[in-house]
Amino acid sequence: MSWIQRVLYGPARPSVGSWKPLRFDSGAFHLKGTAELARALLVLRLCAWPPLVSHGLALQAWSQRLLGSRLSGALLRASIYGQFVAGETTEEVKGCVQQLQALGLRPLLAVPTEEEPDSIAKTGEAWYEGNLNTMLHCVDLSRALMDNPNPAGKSLMQLKVTALTMPLTTPFQKELTSWIQRPGASSELNPKRLAEAMDSGKDLQVSCLNAAQSQHLQASLNRLHRVAQRARAQHVRLLVDAEYTFINPALSLLVAALALRWNSPREGGPWVWNTYQAYLKDTHERLERDAEAAHKAGLAFGVKLVRGAYLEKERAVSTLQGTKDQTQPDYEATNMSYSHCLELMLRHVSNHGPSCHLMVASHNEESVHQATKRMWELGIPLDGTVCFGQLLGMCDHVSLALGQAGYAVYKSIPYGCLEEVIPYLIRRAQENRSVLQGARREQALLSEELWRRLLGRKA
Ligand SMILES: Cc1cc2nc3c(=O)[nH]c(=O)nc-3n(C[C@H](O)[C@H](O)[C@H](O)COP(=O)(O)OP(=O)(O)OC[C@H]3O[C@@H](n4cnc5c(N)ncnc54)[C@H](O)[C@@H]3O)c2cc1C
User: Fold this and answer.
1) Of all protein residues, whose CA lies closest to atom 3 belonging to ligand 1?
2) Which of 306, 365, 391, 396 to mutate to test the pocket of ligand 1 (most atoms within 8 A of CB)?
3) Is residue 12 over pLDDT 60?
4) Hey, whose CA ends up nearest to atom 49 of ligand 1?
5) Which fold has domain 86-432?
6) Span 265-294, pLDDT tens digits
7) pLDDT at residue 182 greater than cutoff 70
8) pLDDT of the residue at 325
9) Residue 32 has what DSSP assignment?
10) pTM (2 d.p.)
11) Can you give the pLDDT at residue 169?
12) How far, in Å, is the centroid of ligand 1 from the Cα of 194?
């Protein structure tokens, strides 16, 4: 780091004044319309009802048959789709984002794709090429959506690598993952070799893969390279989603290859971030090792820190296969792990300035309190290299309080046509069952604010 960078971004001193905890109460709802609040309350109540989440797909098919696709579509648009999705067309997405920006929030676009294809049409190279075009469009849209004048590097988007390379139902990712974990595999499959193959576009020979799989790997690398190239040109940072433990090592290898190519601090990196799931027992250790390795290699480092969304499936798979459960034993252990990872990353940001970026992707009020308090103690600016992330339609009382206080807050926004997004939403709701059931506090705050308005009481 040069002395100018040290002065500008080096370990900062504690901020002036005293730290005040943010109030996550119904106060922030005064920014929202009554109809919006009523819809949020209705949808969150419905989503906390287990049979609706468990049988969501069957209920949707049943309502289509009974009411016809027009009426059932209108009902969904007025409820779940309207609550959690930005819209279908570019204009609808822009409208939704403008509303968020007026509330001090930023967009984090996420293309909804299913990682378990349910039709033959979704296998084969053509499906990934179609997804590539959707991702490239998402990059352009992410750039176009930011406020003017555009703060370069403040546009972020989520990237699901399994939309561009073979999904779980094929053995490809699993094979790659088990190969990576074998001793000696690193000489053949390492980030440097993959990064070179991405740059040159030349075929990569890997002994564990057959000809068709090698071809697919090369095509996947080309797709990833094209998305990263476009993102860099458009000043959009790519936040790669973490998925299941049986494919994460393969995904992380691909992210490491992208990072080598695109995370130079001289070029304003990190442009490619990885996601770390605190519900896994080894996450703190991995995070520490990866942060150190990036620093030693002179690379910038970007992290989206989450608790993890696939708990039920992870445990079911380990029970089925008789393998060791890699997840934390209970909710408290996950919380502790999240807190340790958060502390590690905030210290890293404080020590390494602009070359280390962090998104605190959580709805948990304790985690958000911890982050804001430690940011203040470590002198990390509110709108610098640390930001917060929450899902569209969830925990608005937390997002709005953060946004109003001047922190950088992103809402993860899926968009797309009803037919494609509803199955995706139902699957997400099934994975996040515990979160939706835990949204009781948000429901209580929403109903408190609605009653206040109904009775005409002052805020
Ligand atoms: C912007 C954004 C991006 C995201 N990206 C990803 C991603 O790439 N990959 C991904 O996996 N998830 C992702 N998630 C989802 C995330 O992992 C969590 O599922 C979700 O945010 C709920 O956690 P929380 O911290 O918000 O809230 P909380 O309600 O405090 O935590 C709920 C979480 O705690 C954990 N938990 C609950 N019960 C137990 C238990 N009995 N034992 C152990 N742990 C338990 C689970 O991880 C559960 O999801 C993302 C979330 C956001 C907001």
Assistant:
1) 361
2) 306
3) no
4) 309
5) TIM Barrel (3.20.20)
6) 999 999 999 999 999 999 999 999 999 999
7) no
8) 95
9) S
10) 0.91
11) 43
12) 30
Does residue 9 carry a pLDDT above 70?
no
Pocket test of ligand 1: the residue of 252, 390, 435 to mutate, having most ligand atoms within 8 Å of its CB, is: 435
**Contact between residue 328 and residue 279 where contact means Cβ atoms under 8 Å apart:** yes
User: Is any atom of ligand 1 closer than 6 Å to the C-beta of 115?
Assistant: no
Evaluate whether 88 touches 413 at the Cβ level (below 8 Å). no
Q: Is the peptide bond before 149 cis (omega within 30 degrees of 0)?
A: yes
For residues 71 and 192, give the distance between their C-alpha atoms in angstroms, rounded to a whole number.
53
Angle at 87 between CA 270 and CA 108, to 5 degrees: 15
Report the atom number in ligand 1 closest to the C-alpha of 308: 17
Place of tokens 């990934």: 128
Contacts of 180 (CB under 8 A, 6+ apart): 186, 189, 249, 250, 253
What pLDDT, on the 0 to 100 scale, is given for residue 413? Answer: 96
What does the buried/exposed string (b/e) look like for 5-27 if buried means 16 or more CB atoms within 10 Å of the residue's CB? Answer: eeeebeeeeeeeeeeeebebebe
Go through the chain and tell me how many residues it has: 459
User: Can you give the pLDDT at residue 136?
Assistant: 97
Q: Residue 233 pLDDT more than 90? A: yes
**pLDDT value at 4 more than 60:** no
Task: Find the largest Cα–Cα distance for the chain.
Answer: 72
Burial of 147 (0-12, 13-18, 19+ CB in 10 A): exposed
Cβ(437) to ligand 1 under 6 A? no
Q: Indicate the top mutation candidate among 307, 313, 397, 427 to test ligand 1's pocket, ranked by most ligand atoms within 8 A of CB.
A: 307
Nearest Cα to Cα of residue 372 among 29, 20, 105: 20
Average pLDDT over residues 50-58: 78
Q: One-letter amino acid identity for 107?
A: P
Helices 331-352 and 283-296, interaxial angle, to 10°?
10
The CA distance from 110 to 101, in Å, is: 17
Ligand 1 in reach of 334 Cβ (< 6 A)? yes
Please check the confidence at residue 117 and state whether its pLDDT lies above 50.
Answer: no
Q: Rounded to the nearest whole angstrom, what is the distance from the C-alpha of residue 434 to the centroid of ligand 1?
A: 9
Regarding the beta carbon of 274 and ligand 1, being less than 6 Å apart is answered no
